[in-house]
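hey so i finally got around to running the thing on that chain from the lab meeting. sorry it took forever, my laptop kept dying and i had to restart like 3 times. anyway pasting the input first so we r on the same page abt which one it is
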Amino acid sequence: MSRQIDYRSSSHFAADDVAAVMLDEEYLRARLDQRGGPGARLLEHSVDDTGGRYRIRHGVDEAALPSIVSSLVSGNLVIERTESLCSDGAGSYAGDVDVRIPGTPATAVGTLRLADTAAGSELIVRADVTVKVPFLGSKIEAVIADQVQQLLTAETAFTLDWLARRKA
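ok and heres what got predicted. didnt touch it at all, straight out
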């Protein structure tokens, strides 16, 4: 079984502007410095005329982990996330997200969609969190899904602040 994450955020910035920031190496490093946790790093980054792809590592201090999650890992939790975003050429972007937690049976796989709206743009993230642990898997999936929602909300706030400072 898996738990679905549906995240949606709106911005008054155009999709082209948001996508450019989401794929900007300086932005990614700054976001990781602020939101990435222990051991956070940009592991891979590539951009071309149609979009880009990056892989990042987040860390979560073991003291901040719910006990049900800390039962899966010893020490800090390491999360590796790969995202891609490609333009369709008409103000919309589509991509994939793949999340791995090395050493655990937890994964998340999904899609990203960024498109212009009348008021700016909208980002939609849909992913399925799967934890293959008998009896406890669904409880752990719920905790991870909640943590991912909180992370996406914090990253969105960082992105909008970054854009506002760059456009000022």
